[in-house]
Design brief:
heterodimer; A: about 1000 residues; alpha+beta; six-stranded mixed barrel; 33 helices; 24 strands; about 15% strand; B: alpha/beta; six-stranded mixed β-sheet; four-stranded antiparallel β-sheet; about 25% strand
Chain lengths: ~1000, ~250
């Protein structure tokens, strides 16, 4: 991966290396100037080995998550890039007709005539550009293929014709058995090479005779050898890798395309990888030649263009790597936040443990800064080690995830190759160290602020004190900053002397500002002497309410529509967990005594319950931090599960399939006008089960622009023509309609009666998205509004130049937009723009939808010679959703790593409390607590805190997700709200059991404390 | 040094009602590098209802003796019979149960649970003895009333003075009506006024309920309020003094 959030990774690395140098320099300064403080710090490390291990584990988790995210990016980047290089081989650029750019071989529908090809070849040869070492005309055709030997068939394979005289520079026809480059010229007119994917699908071997159907006529070919999957051997796309390759003239003859080619592949000087470096020069060279020869459309020619196919795909692969790393990093933020809290808590506990020592040190003249230096030294000693371990383990975690991802996406034939770059490792390590350094510095500064007498005598800090003037200043600053952010969120930065790109109606600054206002108010109210509990409880509850309503845009009537994205997920989690934690820790005396009373029902455990409940109530800071750490991660996991489940349901409803059950995709070379008639003719009884049949055709080179939006450029976007059967036979649900249309039926019927209307998918009306969205977007339509004013689009075909204006009158519901993606226009309008469709889908509605799989199989086998591919639409949608579900499960597993932070916190606290309460344990044992009662008390204490945290995290996620899912602003509003209880139960149980296990050892230690020694212990 | 063992015959009540009967108790601490013989064969009989003070210089083994007699610590040899029960023969669970029902403890540093209120601290020994929560609360309040702290029942230890804390400890020690109360420097952390009050309280309890008190103390004024004083040096009882009559 080469960038993160759009910033170069190299730049990030240098900045972080600088920050790392600063961090280490600070420690070096302490070593040189205050060696005693350094030694005082680091000598604490071996004092308690078990706890040191826990601290290292706690500190390393943030680095682990960062490292895993970057390694995932590197692996995806490398795997995809390798796949691109492998598949394209020596093909660096392609010359093709304008409008076909970016299309996979199996999507190319038009051909370059012989004259243009020869003219271009002659000019290229004359130019004798040394950067070009190969010029290969290729023809692609989609064919059904059958192997009579194995009785296996493939309805759509890519048949490639290669010019045998032009293969110099393209040694890419590699025998899968011998690894040697093969010569296409050696093939007879009835011979071909089969690629590995096709050979696997057909169980074919060299020597087998396969049948290829063209215009329903079989043509027999002898398979001379099995060749590696390559662009030149028919890998059309990840979905259609099956192909076979023969001589160009053979294919031209069979398909009656004399002299015609689909594309001309160009090989740059050099090998598979290094040739890409010459892409700009080669493109310049070809662009000049094409223009000089009058082959551009502007020059009155047929419209040839040269495309940097390899560089583009490599850049796409890098982008995918960046996206993946960003994705994992963003969703790992909750765990990183929990890790930061853990560090603060650990250092607060270390300070509490050494309170008397620190007080003594201060009494004999040690300055506060020295204490900071001491803790910083200790923290950095842990830090440099743990970051190293974390970075290493992150690689292992990532590789593990990649193995799972490879299985999830196995159908795409991706060869996942674990990979990590030194740069990513440096960034992960440096970021981990710097993040921990900043946190440790803050924690050290915080703990160094102690009262000497109280510290020496180990007297607890007084509670309920009024806040000082500094706090008042902080509160007022929070109020001022909050107000500024609210204004920026609502009105943008136009009236301020700075430009930070805020145009107003932005949720993030508004929500952050509102939260800061609440915090500022709380501080000011405390300053004027209002009771701590009342202030924090009231304002926290208010904050939780505000976030609930903000999430569902239920405050739109007050603040207008505010735009937010995935960043709101993180912010909402942090703020709501903080607020909820305040409510809980300040009101535990209400919650926990209820548990205590419940414990009273079982008198045997009541003493254990009594003490187990009392301790968490007494130490708000410690309990609050543990609550927050576990809640954060549980919140994130619950939110993700709930949102995922509710969105999945949208796509899996029967309505999402628009009433259709089976989809049959016809072969471009064997068009089918009437599916039922062709089936009957082939003797199939399938039409008896049909209720309706509709036809949807995709326009080749379809593109679109919005008229009102003054878009001059057309964007590539699928445009479909729908026939009357589609309109009458099904009902694809709409989320909104143009004014004047009372129902979805009215909109679809208009598609029959008018020729200037269109229905668009939900995605085309959305903009932005997680990583920005540069694809076509229609402005001016609110897909969730009751109705919208009609919007004009212009659909076009760049090769012919044909265009047509249509009025958008409906937006397909989000749930149905996965199956019905694109712009839908009446067939009549479609035919005016697009000469021939790229492909046509036949949609079948069955009398018994449960038969969809059987009917799909029947259609495919009956119309095999047509090359029809047929599938159950329900199965198709379910498979796609399963893919997403599995990916999100993987994401949840990754996010679940954060649970280890919470569990480590429980462990650190439990180990610490055994030491801290040693004397109290002795007393309890003296007055009659059995060993088992002491152990039980520890276990129950951890359980209460963990359960409270789980309850808080789950409760808040349900609170927030309910507001989101049921909001009118969400397409899920009408589908109801469901909670994935099973998933929640699984990760909650894991968190609970793990925290119990973590407490087990300290609980046993506590139980085995010697009474007499403990009572003597101070 | 002359070792003086208490005259067991003399200290036995006419009916021989010994509540504590310790014989030749030996306790050695092994610190890994050195072995410390904390008790080197101590024999000590105590009659039911007697108040006994143990005195001696620091490190003489006073607290160790208290711990060994009360079953808080194991002994290496000898025997300790409490009400005729040999503590050494009891497993940890039964010994703990025995302690909970028959003994009360008062420590110098109060050893109250800081996270519980006064009444909650006092009721703990009852709860571990299986008394219901309702009864435990009633008895704990009654116990606090006896030490004149009922108005402070809901206060946490940090909100109480040193004297009040020690009175809570005494209330806790007495709440289950123990036969024996062990007190290790019960006034060591208190000023003289508070110390006097605490002592008055213990003497009062002893006279009202005939509970046995065994105290470790450095303070002769405290010791002189007991029936008998035992003097220890180097892990041995070296002298004993009868202060007042005990019938």
């Amino acid at each position: 991966m080469d960038s993160l959030f759009g910033v170069s990774m190299t730049l990030i690395m240098y900045v972080l290396l600088g920050a790392l140098a600063v961090s280490l320099s600070v420690v070096l300064y302490v070593v040189v100037r205050n060696r005693v403080m350094f030694l005082l710090g680091v000598r604490n490390m071996p004092r308690r080995v078990a706890r040191t291990v826990l601290i290292v584990v706690g500190l390393m988790l943030s680095t682990l998550i960062i490292s895993a995210a970057f390694t995932t990016g590197d692996t995806v980047d490398r795997s995809l890039t390798n796949t691109v290089f492998t598949l394209l081989g020596h093909v660096d650029e392609v010359v093709q007709l304008s409008g076909e750019e970016g299309g996979a071989p199996n999507e190319i529908s038009s051909t370059i005539p012989q004259e243009a090809n020869e003219k271009l070849r002659a000019a290229v040869e004359a130019a004798a550009d040394s950067n070009i070492d190969g010029y290969l005309p290729m023809l692609f055709e989609q064919v059904p293929i059958i192997n009579p030997e194995s009785r296996l068939s493939e309805p759509s394979a890519t048949f490639v014709g290669l010019d045998a005289d032009s293969l110099e520079g393209f040694p890419d026809i590699i025998s899968a058995t011998t690894g040697e480059a093969l010569d296409i010229g050696s093939l007879a007119a009835d011979e071909a090479f089969l690629n590995k994917s096709a050979a696997d699908a057909l169980a074919a071997e060299p020597g087998d005779r396969v049948q290829v159907f063209v215009q329903l006529q079989p043509h027999e070919f002898t398979i001379v050898d099995i060749v590696e999957d390559r662009f030149t051997t028919g890998v059309g796309s990840f979905e259609v890798p099956e192909g076979l390759v023969t001589r160009l003239d053979t294919l031209q003859q069979i398909f009656e395309r004399p002299g015609e080619v689909s594309i001309i592949a160009i090989s740059n000087r050099g090998g598979v990888r290094d040739g890409v470096g010459l892409t700009d020069d080669v493109i310049d060279s070809f662009t000049s030649i094409i223009a000089a020869e009058g082959l551009t459309r502007d020059g009155g020619g047929i419209g040839l263009t040269v495309n940097d196919i390899k560089r583009e795909l490599v850049e796409d692969a890098e982008l995918a790597g960046n996206v993946m790393a960003t994705f994992f990093l963003v969703f790992g933020l909750f765990s990183i936040a929990a890790g930061v809290l853990l560090i603060i808590m650990i250092f607060s506990m270390l300070a509490a443990e050494r309170k008397s020592e620190l007080g003594m040190a201060r009494a004999i003249g040690t300055k506060r800064g020295h204490l900071v230096q001491m803790f910083l030294s200790e923290g950095m000693a842990y830090n440099v080690l743990s970051a190293m371990v974390g970075a290493g383990l992150g690689i292992l975690v990532s590789f593990g995830m990649m193995l799972i991802m490879a299985r999830i996406f196995s159908e795409f034939g991706l060869n996942i190759q674990p990979h990590v770059t030194l740069r990513s490792m440096v960034v992960s390590y440096s970021l981990g160290v710097v993040l921990t350094f900043a946190t440790v510095t803050f924690a050290s500064w915080r703990v160094s602020n102690l009262n000497i007498v109280r510290a020496i005598r180990d007297i607890p800090e007084p509670v309920g004190q009024r806040m000082g003037w500094r706090w008042l200043a902080t509160g007022l600053a929070a109020l001022a900053l909050g107000g500024l952010l609210i204004d920026l969120g609502l009105n943008g930065d136009a009236r301020y002397p700075f430009d930070i790109g805020l145009n107003g109606n932005t949720k993030f600054p508004f929500a952050l500002g509102s939260s800061m206002m609440f915090i500022g108010t709380a501080i000011v109210l405390r300053f004027v002497g209002l009771p701590e509990r009342a202030v924090f409880t009231t304002l926290s509850v208010a904050l939780l309410t505000l976030w609930g309503f903000l999430a569902g845009d239920r405050l739109e009537f007050l603040f207008g529509e505010l735009e937010g994205d995935v960043e709101m997920f993180f912010l909402s989690g942090i703020v709501m967990i903080a607020a909820s934690t305040f409510v809980l820790v300040y009101n535990m005396d209400i919650v926990l005594p209820v548990i205590s009373r419940f414990g009273g029902l079982f008198s045997g455990i009541l003493p254990a319950v009594r003490t187990a409940v009392a301790y968490p109530m007494a130490d708000r800071f410690r309990t609050g931090m543990t609550l927050a750490m576990i809640s954060l991660v549980i919140f994130a996991l619950t939110m993700m599960s709930t949102m995922n489940l509710n969105f999945n349901r949208l796509f899996l409803t029967d309505a999402a399939r628009g009433g259709w059950d089976v989809i049959a995709l016809e072969n471009l070379n064997n068009p089918i006008v009437d599916l039922a008639a062709e089936l009957e003719e082939s003797g199939s009884s399938a039409p008896d089960s049909f209720r309706a049949v509709g036809r949807v055709s995709l326009g080749a080179r379809s593109s679109v622009r919005q008229v009102e939006d003054d878009q001059t450029e057309f964007d590539s976007y699928p445009v479909f023509g729908v026939d009357a059967g589609f309109v009458d036979g099904g009902l694809v649900p709409l989320s909104t309609r143009a004014r004047g249309y009372d129902s979805d039926e009215a909109v679809w019927q208009a598609m029959k009666t008018r020729d200037d209307v269109a229905v668009v998918d939900h995605f085309s009306t959305e903009s932005g998205g997680f990583f920005g969205d540069e694809s076509f977007h229609i402005s001016g339509i609110d897909s969730e509004a009751e109705a919208f004013d009609p919007v004009m689009l212009e659909i076009g075909e760049p090769l012919s130049g044909a265009t047509r204006q249509v009025e958008v009158i409906g937006v397909i519901e989000l749930g149905a937009s996965a199956a019905f993606f694109g712009i839908y226009v009446p067939q009549e309008t479609f035919d005016l723009v697009y000469d021939e469709p790229l492909f046509t889908r036949h949609l079948v509605s069955l009398q018994d939808p449960d038969e969809s799989k059987a009917v799909a199989r029947e259609i495919e086998s009956s119309l095999f010679t047509f090359g029809v591919q047929s599938e159950s639409l329900k199965q198709l949608v379910e498979d796609e959703q399963q893919l997403f579900r599995n990916f999100f499960l993987l994401m949840q597993g990754f996010m679940g790593l954060g649970l280890f932070v919470g569990i480590a916190a429980v462990g650190v606290i439990a180990f610490r409390t055994v030491v801290e309460r040693r004397q109290q344990i002795g007393m309890l044992r003296a007055i009659g607590y059995k060993r088992s009662t002491v152990a039980l008390s520890f276990m129950l204490e951890s359980s209460f805190v963990t359960l409270l945290a789980i309850g808080s995290g789950v409760g808040l996620a349900i609170w927030l997700s309910y507001f989101l899912i049921t909001s009118d602003q969400f397409p899920t509003a009408e589908a109801g709200y469901v909670i994935p209880w099973l998933q929640i139960a699984v990760f909650s149980t894991f968190a609970f059991v793990a925290s119990l296990l973590m407490t087990f050892i300290p609980a046993r230690q506590a139980a085995s404390v010697s009474i007499a020694e403990a009572l003597r212990y101070e | 040094m002359t070792t003086v063992q208490p005259d067991t015959a003399a200290t036995r009540s006419p009916d021989g009602d010994l509540i504590i009967d310790a014989t030749e108790v030996v306790k050695t601490y092994d610190t890994g590098k050195v072995q410390v013989r904390a008790l080197r064969g101590v024999t000590l009989p105590v009659r039911r209802g007697e108040m006994v003070a143990i005195m001696g210089p620091s490190g003489c083994g006073k607290t160790t003796l208290l711990n060994c007699l009360s079953g808080l610590d194991d002994i290496d040899s000898g025997s300790v019979l409490i009400d005729g029960v040999d503590l050494d023969t009891l497993g940890d669970a039964r010994r703990t149960e025995f302690r909970a029902r028959r003994m009360g403890f008062v420590f110098q540093l109060y050893n109250l649970l800081p996270v519980l209120s006064a009444v909650e601290n006092v009721e703990l020994p009852l709860l571990v003895s299986g008394v219901s929560a309702r009864d435990a609360r009633a008895k704990a309040e009654s116990s606090l009333e006896q030490v004149h702290l009922i108005d402070w029942a809901s206060h946490k230890p940090a909100e109480l003075s040193g004297g009040q804390r020690q009175r809570v400890t005494i209330a806790r020690a007495l709440v289950n009506k123990p036969a024996i109360v062990w007190a290790d420097e019960p006034t060591g952390d208190l000023d003289s006024t508070n110390a006097g009050e605490i002592l008055d309280l213990m003497v009062d309890m002893n006279s009202r309920f005939a509970q046995t008190f065994v105290l470790v103390t450095h303070d002769p004024n405290i010791a002189n309020r007991m029936h008998r004083i035992i003097y220890m040096t180097d892990g041995l009882i070296v002298d004993e003094k009868k202060v007042r009559d005990f019938d």
